[in-house]
Design a protein that fits this description.
The chain is mainly α. The protein has 8 helices and 2 strands. α1 runs parallel beside α3, α2 packs antiparallel against α3 and α6 packs antiparallel against α7. The radius of gyration is 17 Å and the shape is globular.
Length: 163
């Protein structure tokens, strides 16, 4: 991250300080810091945290997906799409990366490509309910309401099975 972050969520307590020196191994802690910054609405700082994790380990697909998510939150869908494409070629969370591509493509108004990305996510992990929800949303955007209804129904069943 560039510089330090000083947060004072409660004036009675000591401010939270995060410096770029804290973005090192273990990567799980770095991911959690990115998640924390995201939950606080500090998207640029979360982006910097995930980017630092990716620089530390270029094969870290979760950090790369985190970068894409923050780029979307910062209304930078073109950059997010490029990051999600890179993440999909890394290990592990292929479904998550493809679902991210689906979101970015939908934001860009590229609905057919968005559907294809969600289909790829579903092929990677047929039980990944968020991919079905994303696909359903794009189908609604395309005014294919009945198809969206059935896709949403399937997603809800998947969520109930994992609950």
């Amino acid at each position: 991250m560039s510089g330090s972050i000083h947060l004072t969520p409660d004036p009675e307590r000591e401010p939270i300080r995060v410096s770029s020196a804290s973005v090192t191994r273990p990567l799980l802690a770095t991911h959690e810091m990115g998640d924390l910054l995201q939950s606080l609405g500090l998207y640029a700082e979360a982006l910097d945290t995930y980017a630092a994790a990716s620089r530390h380990d270029p094969t870290d697909a979760l950090a790369t997906v985190g970068q894409g998510n923050m780029l979307l939150m910062l209304n930078r869908p073109d950059e997010a799409l490029a990051v999600y494409i890179r993440a999909a070629h890394l290990s592990a969370p292929g479904a998550l990366a493809y679902a991210g591509q689906g979101i970015a493509l939908r934001v860009l108004g590229r609905y057919q490509e968005s559907l294809e990305a969600y289909e790829q996510a579903i092929r990677q992990d047929p039980a990944f309910a968020p991919a079905y929800f994303g696909k359903g949303y794009v189908l609604l955007c395309l005014q294919r309401s009945w198809r969206a209804f059935w896709v949403y129904q399937h997603a809800l069943r998947l969520e109930q099975q994992t609950a």
